[in-house]
């Protein structure tokens, strides 16, 4: 029984703790570098699979060299990444095994006779009133971050209540793409098999368009510790799988409950809400806020909307889409930069088509994002949608890319979008929510063991997240801070176009560039001159291809390097000049923006110096780890 009160829950927690501690190093409770839950060191039984199409078998070795390259620059190996073990993840094939053979050893006994977490049959695991319980942890929000946190907590024997305002299954505005990092975390959660069985597309490449022109077809690097593919699965089914997984591990789910506030009591914290129109309250030792951008838990600990970067997006579904090339298509264009459009299509021709735009107080939102979206549908993707049918209405969503005032307080932690932790470079939030869910769950376990739920004790969560992911997040934030200035759009698109040309001519540089954008290679590795030197093309043929591309033709059958260089220089100077003229027209805004970028660069430099992550200490980038 997963929901227990008082000391009983603590006793159950202690008796079940061996299940994870059997996989921990001897110093796991010391908080040192060796204190990681080495789940990946269990060598799961290989799953046989017949009839897998070419390229359908995916191998993922957790080599220490790959992990060191992912965290280049002297960073210690993160506690939540596997090392020394081997786990094979396969893309779903024609005769893919649908069983969950990769689960942790004790999960099978919990799954016997338990019900699915449908809102009308929520799978409650207690025989007494939930309102009378003092849970170990309450997780508010059953999205990817909340359900992941509930799974991590409940499988460690921690009495966990998961609350959401909606009934499940329910829809959510998203691109529906699950990145290699997300697949990694699904493996850690034990539900990767269900996701792979439900998806209708295994995606290993991406077409990049700039101003309507196909610049390159990229791919996910195949030699990092992450899988080299992504999958498509709509959030309605994906979130339901994660919720079922949390309940299977023993979490109690309470749907249709909208949380309004939290109230501190002497020995716990009370979550105040409303369930189907009736006031309700639940109590716990710790509350984890995973309730999205408009988080009620975040507001309750003093956070307010501030002048930071926010991204707004519109999305629609289409059937009978006709496409060629890659099934992931990303579009950059002057009309909606900083932002991008996308079309993700599965094998059946069902597509998620959307457009997102980033803005803040200095550079406001487009006057009519809906009009730009309609124009995007009528121009960039019109050919693929010629015989397609739209399914349902156009939906909108948002994400924030700035640090809130606090992500911890006494008895409270924020994760995922509630803590604004989405990737500022590509907007991906699912895997980021899972990462923070793991850090928060580990901190919660330590707090329960110590009986200390103060802000100082929960600081461990913020510290752990900053150590493992903060450097990459800060680096991506700087890129976004620069790119969000619409006066730089011409130069930014010029730069993107030529980088795309270089990547098309050099596979090693292509792996590096696509790895940085997708996040499977540490984004902070861009800070190292050594890494950049190793990554950039060194073959003359790649640079000649760039010159020929810009010259748009060969002269007398040969590459005219002089003409290509002149055209390249003219494009760079012209775009920079236009940016300078536009910024000069609004000097106050430009000055404010410049100070913001400089401040963030200085903060990142201070962090690099303080942590000893100097450029000379950066290791070999992930894309060269097998060369």
UniProtKB/TrEMBL annotation:
UniProt superkingdom: Bacteria
Coiled-coil region(s): none
Region (Disordered): 20-60
Feature: compositional bias, Polar residues: 21-35
Residue ranges occupied by any FAD-binding domain in the UniProt entry: 136-306
InterPro entries assigned to the protein according to its UniProt record, in alphabetical order: FAD-bd, FAD/NAD-bd_sf, Geranylgeranyl_Rdtase_fam, Geranylgeranyl_reductase
Gene Ontology terms, MF aspect: FAD binding; oxidoreductase activity, acting on the CH-CH group of donors, NAD or NADP as acceptor
UniProt-listed SUPFAM superfamilies: FAD/NAD(P)-binding domain
PANTHER family, per the entry: CONDITIONED MEDIUM FACTOR RECEPTOR 1, GERANYLGERANYL DIPHOSPHATE REDUCTASE
Protein name per the record: NAD(P)/FAD-dependent oxidoreductase
Source organism: Paraburkholderia panacisoli
């Amino acid at each position: 029984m997963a929901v227990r009160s008082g000391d009983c829950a603590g006793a159950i927690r202690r008796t079940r703790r061996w299940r994870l501690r059997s996989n921990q190093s001897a110093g796991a409770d010391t908080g040192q570098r060796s204190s990681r839950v080495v789940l990946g060191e269990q060598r799961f039984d290989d799953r046989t699979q017949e009839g897998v199409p070419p390229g359908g078998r995916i191998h993922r070795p957790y080599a220490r060299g790959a992990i060191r390259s992912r965290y280049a620059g002297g960073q210690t190996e993160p506690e939540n990444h596997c090392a020394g073990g081997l786990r094979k993840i396969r893309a779903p094939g024609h005769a893919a095994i649908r069983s969950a053979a990769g689960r942790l050893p004790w999960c099978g006994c919990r799954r016997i006779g338990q019900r699915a977490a449908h809102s009308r049959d929520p799978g409650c695991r207690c025989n007494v009133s939930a309102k009378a319980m003092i849970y170990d942890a309450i997780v508010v929000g059953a999205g990817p971050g909340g359900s992941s946190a509930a799974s991590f907590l409940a499988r460690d024997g921690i009495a966990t209540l998961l609350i959401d305002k909606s009934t499940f299954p329910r829809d959510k505005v998203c691109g529906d793409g699950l990145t290699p990092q997300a697949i990694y975390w699904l493996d850690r959660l034990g539900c990767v098999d269900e996701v792979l069985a439900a998806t209708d597309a295994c995606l290993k490449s991406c077409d990049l368009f700039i101003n309507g022109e196909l610049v390159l077809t990229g791919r996910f690097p195949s030699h990092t510790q992450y899988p080299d593919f992504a999958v498509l699965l709509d959030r309605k089914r994906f979130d339901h799988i994660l919720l079922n997984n949390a309940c299977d591990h023993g979490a109690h789910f309470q749907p249709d409950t909208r949380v309004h506030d939290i109230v501190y009591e002497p020995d716990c914290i009370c979550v105040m809400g409303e369930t189907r129109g009736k006031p309700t309250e639940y109590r716990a030792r710790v509350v984890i806020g995973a309730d999205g951008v408009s988080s009620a838990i975040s507001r309750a600990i003093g956070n307010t909307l501030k002048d930071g970067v926010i991204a707004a997006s519109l999305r629609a579904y289409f059937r009978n889409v006709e496409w060629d090339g890659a099934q992931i298509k990303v579009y950059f264009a002057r009309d909606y930069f900083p932002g991008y459009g996308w079309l993700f299509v599965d094998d059946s021709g069902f597509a998620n088509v959307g457009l997102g735009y980033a803005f803040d107080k200095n550079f406001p939102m487009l006057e009519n994002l809906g009009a730009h979206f309609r124009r995007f549908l009528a121009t960039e993707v019109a050919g693929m949608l010629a015989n397609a049918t739209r399914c349902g209405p156009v939906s909108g969503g948002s994400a924030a890319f700035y640090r809130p005032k606090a992500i911890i307080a006494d008895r409270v932690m924020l994760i995922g979008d509630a803590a604004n932790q989405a990737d500022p470079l590509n907007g991906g939030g699912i895997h980021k929510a899972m990462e923070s869910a793991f850090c928060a769950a580990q901190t919660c376990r330590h707090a329960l063991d110590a009986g200390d739920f103060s802000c100082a004790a929960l600081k461990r969560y913020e510290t752990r997240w900053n150590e493992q992911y903060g450097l990459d997040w800060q680096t991506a934030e700087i890129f976004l801070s620069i790119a969000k200035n619409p006066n730089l759009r011409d130069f930014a698109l010029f730069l993107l176009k030529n980088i795309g040309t270089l990547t098309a001519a050099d596979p090693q540089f292509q792996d590096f560039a696509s790895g940085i954008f997708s996040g499977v290679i540490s984004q902070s590795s861009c800070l190292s001159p050594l890494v950049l030197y190793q990554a950039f093309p060194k073959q003359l043929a790649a640079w000649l291809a760039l010159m020929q591309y810009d010259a748009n033709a060969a002269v007398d059958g040969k590459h005219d390097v002089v003409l290509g260089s002149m055209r390249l220089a003219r494009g760079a100077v012209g775009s920079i000049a236009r940016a300078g003229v536009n910024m000069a027209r609004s000097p106050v805004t430009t000055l404010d923006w410049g100070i913001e970028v400089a401040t963030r660069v200085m903060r990142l430099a201070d962090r690099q110096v303080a942590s000893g992550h100097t450029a000379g200490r950066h290791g070999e980038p992930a894309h060269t780890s097998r060369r």
